[in-house]
């Protein structure tokens, strides 16, 4: 095999980075389950007509096709790898609705594939962690206030920079645009969604070309409103626009912000320029900034959807949010802002006096593993100094010396140099497994 060339956009972490990723995922799972979310995994492929029916995603979908497939293989030509976990989840709900209890709360941690240009924190294959709540026919709006609380508890428990969840409501924006006399509010939402990328002057010009300068100024004024409490309501009212859908969106967004302010002050911020590009969102929408990494965009996004999971008279509205796990970790790893206390799970290396005594070292290792302590046996019976240096290079904190002559079993902390009798010994709790830092 020739020397391989790395593939851009397909990250492969080093072992210590993978350990950090696993600990982050463990924390996410624990938090999701504390809130009553059940685990779920869906297939990697979906019919193309399902993947492409909502949002501008056609350029990003990878299709699935055998190398020797022919044009007659219709089934394969109609399959694509999922680009997010929301569309597969909506299909799953429709397919299994008769076996589910509603409201249904699920979390899902899987790889997704998206054919976009790789950049810092942006990949073609990456891991997402999603939570969603769906109900039959109607979904109370209080669930839109709960979603940020779950994410706040999950992310704020990690040793990472603080996060701020930016929230808006599509009803608020749509009602405002309709109150201005704009008949196609989704067009304006797509334009405003580009505000941070292209700047206010470009957004203003694009809106003004079709709807006039006054309406463009009003749209930008709305997008400029931001607050960490319900004071945004007065700012919106000062713009003098009225519409029933605007009133509904204001009330729902105020409830989200105030609920979060009571539960976790400073976590949520009403930011009325947030629109989200996917068409299926209908209510509250979320984006998340990581302190110090704001220039890289949102690391956690989602929103309310009412019509994504629907077939005929069966409608299952939902609300959810997705953490871009690979995106988050890639940014932190590159900045040396997240690591683990040691690069291997092993806490103890059992020394080896000779090959003839390997069985003794193996029994000690087995006894430690039975106590939940990750243990290795030295690879060869080298001089003790070399065995200790082997543990140092591996990042293993303790070396266990089996009894030798009159000397009982002893354990050495190779970081401090302290050596004690092994009888009754146990590693400190913080050393049993690698910890995030």
UniProtKB/TrEMBL annotation:
Print the keywords alphabetically. Answer: Aminoacyl-tRNA synthetase, ATP-binding, Cytoplasm, Ligase, Nucleotide-binding, Protein biosynthesis
What reaction does this catalyse?
tRNA(His) + L-histidine + ATP = L-histidyl-tRNA(His) + AMP + diphosphate + H(+)
**Domain Aminoacyl-transfer RNA synthetases class-II family profile: residue ranges:** 22-345
CDD domains recorded for this chain? HisRS-like_core (cd00773)
Q: Identify the stretch(es) annotated as Disordered.
A: 418-437
Q: GO MF annotations for this entry?
A: histidine-tRNA ligase activity
Q: Cite the Pfam families for this sequence.
A: HGTP_anticodon, tRNA-synt_His
EC number from the UniProt entry? 6.1.1.21
Family, per entry: Belongs to the class-II aminoacyl-tRNA synthetase family.
PANTHER family in UniProt: HISTIDINE--TRNA LIGASE, HISTIDYL-TRNA SYNTHETASE
Q: Oligomeric state and partners?
A: Homodimer.
- Name this polypeptide is given: Histidine--tRNA ligase
Q: Give the species.
A: Dactylosporangium cerinum
Q: What is the lineage of its organism?
A: Bacteria, Bacillati, Actinomycetota, Actinomycetes, Micromonosporales
């Amino acid at each position: 095999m020739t020397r391989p060339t790395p593939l851009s956009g397909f990250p492969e972490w080093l072992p210590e980075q993978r350990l950090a990723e696993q600990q982050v995922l463990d924390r996410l799972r624990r938090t999701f389950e504390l809130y009553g979310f059940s685990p779920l995994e869906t297939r990697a492929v979906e019919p193309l007509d399902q993947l492409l029916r909502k949002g501008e995603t056609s350029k990003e979908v990878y299709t699935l096709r055998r190398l020797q497939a022919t044009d007659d293989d219709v089934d394969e030509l109609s399959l694509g790898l999922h680009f997010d976990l929301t569309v597969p989840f909506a299909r799953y709900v429709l397919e299994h609705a008769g076996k589910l209890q509603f409201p249904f709360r699920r979390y899902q941690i899987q790889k997704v594939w998206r054919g976009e240009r790789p950049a810092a924190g942006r990949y073609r294959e990456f891991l997402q962690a999603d939570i969603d709540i769906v109900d039959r026919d109607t979904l109370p709006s209080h669930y839109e206030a709960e979603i940020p609380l779950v994410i706040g508890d999950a992310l704020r428990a990690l040793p990472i920079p603080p996060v701020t969840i930016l929230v808006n409501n599509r009803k608020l924006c749509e009602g405002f645009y309709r109150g201005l006399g704009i008949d196609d509010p989704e067009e304006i939402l797509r334009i405003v969604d580009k505000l941070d990328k292209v700047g206010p002057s470009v957004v203003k010009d694009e809106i003004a070309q079709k709807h006039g300068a006054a309406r463009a100024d009003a749209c930008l004024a709305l997008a400029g409103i931001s607050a960490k409490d319900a004071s945004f309501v007065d700012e919106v009212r000062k713009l003098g626009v009225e519409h029933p859908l605007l009133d509904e969106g204001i009330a729902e967004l105020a409830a989200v912000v105030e609920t979060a302010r009571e539960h976790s002050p400073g976590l949520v911020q009403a930011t009325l320029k947030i629109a989200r590009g996917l068409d299926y969102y209908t209510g509250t929408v979320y984006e998340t900034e990581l302190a110090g990494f704001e220039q890289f965009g949102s690391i956690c996004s989602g929103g309310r959807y009412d019509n994504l999971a629907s077939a005929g008279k069966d409608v299952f509205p939902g609300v959810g949010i997705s953490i871009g796990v690979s995106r988050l970790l890639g940014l932190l790893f590159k900045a040396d802002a997240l690591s683990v206390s040691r690069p291997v799970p092993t806490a103890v290396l059992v020394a080896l006096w000779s090959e003839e005594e390997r069985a003794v070292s193996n029994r000690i290792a087995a006894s430690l593993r039975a106590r939940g302590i990750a243990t290795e046996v030295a690879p060869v019976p080298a001089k003790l100094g070399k065995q200790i240096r082997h543990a140092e290079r591996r990042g293993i904190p303790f070396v266990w010396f089996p009894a030798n002559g009159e000397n009982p079993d002893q354990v050495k902390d190779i970081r401090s140099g302290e050596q004690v009798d092994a009888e009754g010994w146990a590693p400190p709790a913080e050393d049993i497994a690698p910890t995030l830092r």
